[in-house]
Amino acid sequence: MSDNLKHPLDSTASEESLERLSKVARIEGFSDEEEEAEELADSESMNPVNPRVQRYLVAIEYIGTRFSGSQQQAKDRTVVGVLQEAFHKFIGQPVKIFCSSRTDAGVHALSNVCHVDVERISKRKPGEVLPPHEPGVVQRAVNHFLQRKDGDVMVIDVRCVPSNYHARYKAQERTYFYRLLSGSDPLSILEKDRCWHVPEELNLRSMQEACRVLVGSHDFSSFRAAGCQAKSPMRSLDELNITEVPSTPYFPSISERARSNLNNGDPLACSSQPKSETAGVTTNVGEVEGSTDGDSFGRRRWHRCYVVTARSRGFLYHQVRLIVGALKCVGTGELTVSDGMSLSLSLQHFYSCGFD
């Protein structure tokens, strides 16, 4: 990377914009790393096995806009707090939920995995222990209580696991997706809290080249926030790429609908009115007196949409958002990639963007 910056960045505004991301945590198999094994042993010693308790692995998705993060807090609304409340209403007793990954305020999740221990006690005969609920029953019941509230959390999968299976310590990898919408027009209200709006044009090829520099095992000291408590800055970034994808929410134009030829001559599927309704979204198109744009009036110009994917077994505190901020700098030309630059030098210049 070069050290030629066009202008300094507003780190506060950039940090706020970078809050919007999606996350996937995949759970499979068991971990044998010494550090996690020790932590797991400590966890199990504090929670001795109860043969009457069934441990469930629960995958959830959520819209993080109105949450103060995933981990339970004393006063603020959190994902774990809402989920524990729903389980409490279902089984009639409090539970403790452990997530595989923590997410910050405003962060969305496509699939964050957690585990919970449930002892099924008869409500008619207090003290009588009943056989565990089937996973499908747990999913439907908990979703019922979740949807009665705000409906911004949903259980997407449930399965029974052994009592020593820990959602956090058995996690094999975690994947983050960041959406960047590039264009000078104001962002669609339908995209609110779903992406980072970058008014400038982005150079996709330069950003992809920067991604290749960071893949692999490196010292990511320049890409962790001040509050990071990790013992080592060494991390292995298994995947980092940026791809241009169709901008969403996406609804086909008149010409695209005509080309698709989906109607197949069905008179019931045709309309003589310049109005269309798709998935609950209504658009009206008509001629406007004095307009020179004709039927382009009322049509929004979509932004170019880019998705950054970062995959690793574990990340440092704010590591991914700092990397995305640096990639944006490369895309706008505030940073440039030079073929002869070493990785350490590149990291120093990334850090100069000020995303901390």
UniProtKB/TrEMBL annotation:
PANTHER family: PSEUDOURIDYLATE SYNTHASE, TRNA PSEUDOURIDINE SYNTHASE-LIKE 1. It comes from Arabidopsis suecica (Swedish thale-cress). Residues 269-285 have a biased composition (Polar residues). It is an enzyme of class 5 (isomerase). Keywords: Isomerase, tRNA processing. Its EC number is 5.4.99.12. Coiled coil: none annotated. It catalyses: uridine(38/39/40) in tRNA = pseudouridine(38/39/40) in tRNA. InterPro entries: PsdUridine_synth_TruA, PsdUridine_synth_TruA_a/b_dom. Residues 269-293 are annotated as: Disordered. The keyword Ribosomal protein does not apply. GO terms for biological process: tRNA pseudouridine synthesis. Residues 59-169, 210-339 form the Pseudouridine synthase I TruA alpha/beta domain. It holds the Pfam family PseudoU_synth_1. The keyword Mitochondrion does not apply. One of its GO terms (molecular function) is tRNA pseudouridine(38-40) synthase activity. This is tRNA pseudouridine synthase. Belongs to the tRNA pseudouridine synthase TruA family.
